[in-house]
Amino acid sequence: MEAAAHTVAPVTGRFAPSPTGRMHAGNIFCALVAWLVAKSQGGRMVLRVEDLDRERSKPHFADEVQRDFEALGLTWDAGPFFQHDRDEVYQSALDALDAQGLLYPCWCTRADLHAASAPHRGEKPVYAGTCRHLSERERAERAASGRAPATRLMVPDRTYALHDLIQGDYQQNLATECGDFLVRRADEAFAYQLAVVVDDAAQGVNSVVRGMDLLCSTPQQMYLQELLKLPHATYAHVPLVVGELNRRLSKRDRDAALDELLMRFKTPAGVIGHIAGITGLAPTTDPATPEELLRDFDLDKLPALFPDKVQILWR
Ligand code: GLU
After folding, report:
1. Could you tell me the distance, in angstroms and rounded to a whole number, from the CA of residue 210 to the centre of ligand 1?
2. Ligand 1 test: best mutation among 192, 212, 235, 251, most atoms within 8 Å of CB?
3. In this predicted model, what pLDDT tens digit does every residue of 8-54 receive, in sequence order?
4. For residue 209, how far is its CA from the centre of ligand 1 (angstroms)?
5. Which residues of 173-197 are buried (b: 16+ CB within 10 A; e: fewer)?
6. What is the tens place of the pLDDT at every residue in 210-239?
7. Mean pLDDT of the chain
8. What SS3 state is found at 174?
9. Is the pLDDT of residue 171 over 80?
């Protein structure tokens, strides 16, 4: 079993927004915890705009997201870094994996994947390995079809374990609970898992705070770190802020988007204070700046703040 190493000083956290819309209450909550975790340890923050998905990422959202962070007092010390101009770096990571004989082309469509995989504990579908086992002839036939393949990384039958600062102990066997995963998509975009691992290391990030939905990606990222000889980070996966009926808040939820929040709570401190109050970060929903919340923030008490570690109802 592989265990994540402990963070070494200086602590470097990150904001890693995808510029696909305005910030919403869930993103703000996650960013606030990331900032408090880093700053309470005398650390620094990096801002990385995750604009890997060129179709969904819009430059005006990248600008707005920076203004949103600034307005909320969620300051960063390095960046902004962008993913759109880092293809060469991602390509050399891909080459390093290829040199280890771990990559193969995959022609499975979304529909194939759906039909062939059994979702595990409702978490994520496990790739059945269909294209891993193609014969040379089958591979040549598919290549001749002219349809571009994606690139998948073979995973070992190994369990990766980590101690998450909020979720506690978590482990996942990559072969049985994940399967070979994408490192490059058929449209040639580098996959999130690869880019995030390369960028976190390049930007010195050793404290990752993000939504609970990404906990199941962490073992994949630890495996990539090992293959690319990059250090592990410490992890804290925050509960998701959800709407009624467990619906995930999205950037399309007007009621929870920052411009609506500013109308409802009047000031950035009003927004931060409300989010801190309803999530358990602060005892009241009174207006507060991140700096003010930092004074009473105790990293050791972080897990106890969230009785429900999976989700928090937006109100
Ligand atoms: N860019 C992702 C998001 O906005 C976060 C990815 C990560 O934190 O690793 O949801």
Report:
1. 7
2. 192
3. 559 999 999 998 887 889 999 999 999 999 999 999 999 999 998 87
4. 9
5. bbbebbbbbbbbbbeebbbbbbbbb
6. 999 999 999 999 999 999 999 999 999 999
7. 91
8. helix
9. yes
Pairwise CA distance, residues 200 & 229, whole Å: 13
Closest by CA to 261, choosing from 206, 220, 315, is 315
Report helix, strand or coil for 81.
strand
How close is the Cα of 66 to the center of ligand 1, in Å? 15
The yes-or-no verdict on residue 7 having pLDDT over 50 is no
Binding site residue list for ATP: 251
Residues 118, 120, 124, 130: is their CA dihedral positive or negative?
A: negative
Choosing from 61, 64, 210, 221 the residue with most ligand 1 atoms within 8 A of its CB, the one to mutate for a pocket test is 210
Q: pLDDT tier at 116 (50, 70, 90 boundaries)? A: low
Q: In CATH, which of 1.10.150.120, 3.30.70.1560, 3.40.50.620, 3.40.30.10 is domain 12-87+192-313?
A: 3.40.50.620
Minimum-distance ligand 1 atom for the alpha carbon of 209:
8
Atom of ligand 1 nearest to the CA of 27: 4
Amino acid letter, residue 253? D
Overall CATH class of domain 89-156+177-184: alpha beta
The closest-lying atom of ligand 1 relative to the alpha carbon of residue 208 is: 8
For residue range 176-190, what is the model confidence (pLDDT) as tens digits? 999 999 999 999 999
Domain ranges in the chain?
12-87+192-313, 89-156+177-184
Nearest CA owner, ligand 1 atom 8? 210
